[in-house]
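ingest -> validate -> predict -> emit
validate: passed (alphabet ok, no gaps, 178 aa)
predict: started
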Amino acid sequence: MTSTPPDPAHPELTPCPGCGKLMHQRSLQCLQCGFRPDLANYQELLGSLGTISSILIGFGLSGVVTLATTDSEKMNSPLLYWVEGMWVLASFLLLAVLVLGEFLRRTEPDEILLVAGSREQDRYGRRCMLLLCVFIAALFLVALGLVLLAFNLHPGVGAVTIVGLLLACGFSWYWLTT
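emit:
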């Protein structure tokens, strides 16, 4: 691989670490070889987390409102108070992921994407992974709330919910590891 020397007339162009061809310093991807700077991948992750979080917040809060306004003897179960509490907590965690992820995405390191120092990239990456962990914890709370809600309806529904949750987790694990 031969690296194309920087062009003094265009100082914003720099050699791609993947193929050596010139690309813009703030490019999200090299048009020649497809190389993507780590920061571009982190920004894409943050955008996805924000979108999914906003959807789950809406579903979680509508579920809490539905449970709170339903007038039924079965709805006065202490188990449902736990469900509501878990969904409210999960909604707040997802809201934090949404807001902090967007803040982090908009305050990318002042350096250019392609040549940002490894210290800035490491810090940015750690923050992204922390938000991902909070997101996963919130998903766990949502899933646990669904299981408790299902068992409150009927033990058979609860059992089917657990089987579905285990299948979803198994499929996700398989997909992520292959």
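Helices lie at 38-69, 78-106, 118-153, 155-177.
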